[in-house]
Amino acid sequence: MKDVPLSQPKKNSVNSQAPKPQLLVIDHLGSIVNAANYNAFSKEGYAIDIAGSAEKALSLLKGHLPDLILLEASLPEHSGYSLEAFIQCLRQVPLVLVSHDCSLEAKLQGLSLGADDYLANPYHLSELLVRIRVLLRRWMNRHSTDGVMTIDQ
Asked: For the whole model, what pTM was predicted?
């Protein structure tokens, strides 16, 4: 899997003023985003950057924060769980942990370490896309109010 450099936010075709949500995929196997499903992500309006190693992902994260991170839990030089602790320290980006381990213990560990969602492989692409859409919607709604709550009377 080759690394793809972070790109500038692209304009969404639905609203030419709004940038596409930027996803960072950290996956050495190419199992999350590959040639077969890349178009589905693009059709959903996502700009995708791919890091094929933990080292590349960490260097990319220091330069630019994406809107959401998809992290494969079985990176060879670091476990996704050790990277997850670093990423969640940022607390500015929602994180979906993807793993071939569907055990309850793995799910509990991933979520306890700070993942916003955990998806066990194999999964259906439409399920992943819906989970991304929901997380981004909730995350954007939660962080767009700048801590001000308005209650209609």
From this structure: 0.76
How far is it, in rounded angstroms, from Cα 34 to Cα 37? 6
Q: Which residue has the tokens 């890091």?
A: 51
DSSP-derived letter for residue 77 is S
Instruction: State the Cα–Cα distance between residues 16 and 47, nearest whole angstrom.
Output: 14
Give the tens place of pLDDT for each residue, 109-153: 889 888 899 999 889 999 999 999 999 999 887 766 555 544 454
Count how many Cα atoms sit within 13 Å of the Cα of residue 30 in the half-sphere of its side chain.
9
Q: What is the DSSP string of 58-70?
A: HHHHHH---SEEE
Q: What is the pLDDT of residues 51-94, one digit of tens each?
A: 988 888 888 888 788 999 998 888 776 666 666 666 655 678 89
Cis peptide bond prior to 122, omega within 30° of 0:
yes
